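FORM 7B: Structural annotation worksheet

SECTION A. Query
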Amino acid sequence: MGFSPFDWFGSMMFNIVPVIVIMGFIFVFGTIIVRSVQGVKQWKRNNESPILTVDATVVTKRADTHHHYHNTGSNNMHHMSSSTTYYVTFEVPSGDRLEFRVRDTDYGMLAEKDTGRLTFQGTRYLGFERIKN
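SECTION B. Predicted structure
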C-alpha cells in the first residue's frame, strides 16, 4: 500500500476543521462579550451624565428596518420578521446636531421643524416638549 495525496489531504482536514470551528466559537462569543461590555459602559456613562433640557428643533427623522428570515426546519417553511429602530435628529441653538434613538410613539408624535425643549442624559433621549407657535 502506497501513500496517496488524498490520505494526506484527509488527515489535514481532520486537523484543521476542529481548529476553524473552535476559532469561530471564540470569535462569536468574544464579539458578544465585547458588545455587552460596551453597552454596560455606555449605560454607566449615561447614568453619570447630567440631565439636560435645551431648546431644540427637529431637523430630521429616520427609521432603520431590519428583516430577519427564519427556516422553521419542517416542510421547508420559512418565517420572516422585521424590527424597526427609530431615530430623530435635533438641532440646538449653537448649531450642533444631536441624534437620538426614540420609541415608536415618540417618533410618530414628532415632525420635522417642530421646536421645543429637548431633555436628554448623555446619549439617552428622555423627551421633547413641543412649543406651540
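SECTION C. Observations
Strands lie at 51-71, 78-91, 97-102, 115-121, 124-130. The mean pLDDT is 88.

SECTION D. Sign-off
Analyst initials: ____
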